Amino acid sequence: MQEFFFYVKMGLHHVLDIGAYDHILFLSALAVPFTFKNWKHVLVLATIFTAAHCTSLALSVYDVVAVDVGLIEFLIPVTILVTAIFNFTYVFKEGVNMGELLHYVATGFFGLIHGFGFSNYFKMLMAEEENKVTPLLGFATGIELSQVTIILIVLGIAFVVLDLLKVKRYVFIAVASILIIAITIPLLIATFPI
């Protein structure tokens, strides 16, 4: 059990590490269009993302699929950029049903990419481990707990801005998405495969 909690802690630290802010940016971009009133929609998106990235993490750990690390490092900021740009559908069209199926499919695909990104770090962590199941479950649990934390923080910020400060929803989504895009552009440039 101690081993399991060690990997839970590693998963938490990996996502919540400010140096690894790409994970925080993606989850923020994913949650920005929503409020606590839309919690079911956010839960579905987070579940799809989780299932997809756990799948690619497991496929990589068990050496079923190998993906170029440089390509994944570039694709992660691409997923952030595309998600932030997609948020503008919520600015120009009211309602969470706009492009719902597309949003689900894209989130699942992006989850696969992020899972491969997690896999490199995870493989380094467990280089000497014979048993991969316990570390994998622990690491995935830590990642999920951190993702829920980030999403709840974004929804909390949305509550303060929208309900207490009375900022228009479309303004909040647009400003937050533009900020995420501005932070992501240097990541794209730094990881661009030459």
Describe the structure.
- This protein has 194 residues and is mostly helical.
- The protein has eight helices and no strands.
- Helix 2 packs antiparallel against helix 8 and helix 3 (39-61) packs across helix 6 (100-125).
- The longest helix has 32 residues, at 133-164.
- The model has no long low-confidence stretch (mean pLDDT 89).
- This is HupE/UreJ family protein.
- The chain crosses the membrane at residues 20-36, 43-62, 74-92, 101-122, 142-165, 170-192.
- InterPro entries: Put_HupE_UreJ (IPR032809).
Notable traits:
single chain; HupE/UreJ family protein; mainly alpha; membrane; 8 helices; 194 residues
Number of self-contained structural domains: 1
Got a strand count? 0
Average pLDDT for all residues? 89
What letter string, H or E per element, gives the SSE order? HHHHHHHH
| Main beta sheet strand tally, sense and closure | none
For the CA atoms, what is the radius of gyration? 17 Å
**End-to-end gap:** 44 Å
Assembly state (oligomeric): single chain
Shape: globular
The share of residues in extended strands comes to under 5%
In helices, the fraction of residues equals over 70%
Output the structural class.
mainly alpha
Would you identify the regions where 5 or more consecutive residues have pLDDT less than 50? none
User: Helix tally?
Assistant: 8
Keywords: Membrane, Transmembrane, Transmembrane helix
InterPro entries: Put_HupE_UreJ
Pfam family, one: HupE_UreJ_2
Transmembrane segments: 20-36, 43-62, 74-92, 101-122, 142-165, 170-192
